Amino acid sequence: MDRKDIEKRIMLGRSFITKFGSEEGIDESYLTDQEMKKPQPPLFKAAKPENRVIDLPKDFSELDISKDFLGIINRRKSHRVYTEENISLTELAYLLWCTQGVKSVRGKSYATLRTVPCGGARHEFECYMAVKKVEGLKEGLYHYLPMTHQLEFLGEAEDMDGFISESLSLQSWAVKASVVFYYSCIFYRAEWRYGIWAHSPILMDSGHITENLYLAATSIGLGGCAIAAIDPDLSNKVFDLDGKEETIFYAMPVGTVSEKDAEAENEFYAFVREEGL
Ligand SMILES: Cc1cc2nc3c(=O)[nH]c(=O)nc-3n(C[C@H](O)[C@H](O)[C@H](O)COP(=O)(O)O)c2cc1C
């Protein structure tokens, strides 16, 4: 790509954001699949019948959840140093509930209403996990079943640490997390309603999930870090996704943290000091 092509590519990236609902050259008669009354896609991805399913607790009363909302907001930060302790199954269930939990269904089965907002309530995401240190769970790969608040066990990873590190573009600090959340998008769930305009809201919607994850983790003394620099091909292969209709595109390791590691955390930004920025 020469500079001109790069400039064009940048403008294309901008138009992806600015042209929501007003793409030039699109015939006024263009209808989305929902407008054409095509059947809507499933609201969630069901477990494979051969996979083991695990019930998750929904009573979070045993957790010491901070009630100091402003304190949680102010304490939220990205954590990349973890103390490698177990988290409880209830803590994992709480994190899943706060990020994807289904509170009710709109209509007969038109939409799910969840703990996060989402354009058109399409909730086009699925949550997969690389579980390392969760009490009562075998280390391995899991999928959240939001309608029933359960986990689907997908199997063991051949080389869990290698997978986590490589799938997160060699950000190997993440292998010390208790669990790494991998978020996929099933595009058609959003495209059915928004057609050619589905894609920028998808990115807006995904931010709500990770922000809730940051806040939920902070509220129970855990820490995590959103990660965009992922290897989708490797992640899709491991979670058995086709990469076309459904792809992993966002991740977040979450683990146990200690204030004692504040200096080690700051070292991730040593370049700011070294380069005099
Ligand atoms: C969309 C997104 C992608 C990010 N990707 C990475 C990443 O790949 N690696 C990383 O170390 N931090 C990543 N971060 C964390 C940011 O670097 C961090 O939020 C930022 O430096 C501000 O620090 P704070 O979260 O502690 O306030 C990401 C954050 C967001 C929201």
- Indicate the percent of residues in helices: 25-40%
Biggest sheet character: 7 strands, antiparallel
Total strands: 9
- Topology as a string of helices (H) and strands (E): HEHHEEEEEHEHHEHEHH
Account of the protein in words:
This protein is an alpha+beta fold and 277 residues long. The protein has a single domain (53-274), classed as NADH Oxidase. It is 32% helix and 19% strand. It contains 9 helices and 9 strands. The chain has helices at 3-18, 69-75, 89-100, 160-167, 187-194, 199-219, 232-238, 262-266, 270-274; strands spanning 53-55, 102-106, 111-114, 125-131, 140-145, 150-155, 179-186, 222-224, 246-256. The strands form 2 sheets. The protein has a 7-stranded antiparallel sheet. Helix 3 runs antiparallel to helix 6. The model has no long low-confidence stretch (mean pLDDT 95). Bound molecules: flavin mononucleotide. Flavin mononucleotide (FMN) binds at residues 77-78, 80, 171, 225-229.
In short:
It contains 9 helices and 9 strands.
How is the topology of this model organized?
Elements: H1 3-18, E1 53-55, H2 69-75, H3 89-100, E2 102-106, E3 111-114, E4 125-131, E5 140-145, E6 150-155, H4 160-167, E7 179-186, H5 187-194, H6 199-219, E8 222-224, H7 232-238, E9 246-256, H8 262-266, H9 270-274
Antiparallel strand pairs: 1-6, 2-3, 4-5, 4-7, 5-6, 7-9, 8-9
Flavin mononucleotide (FMN) binds next to loops.
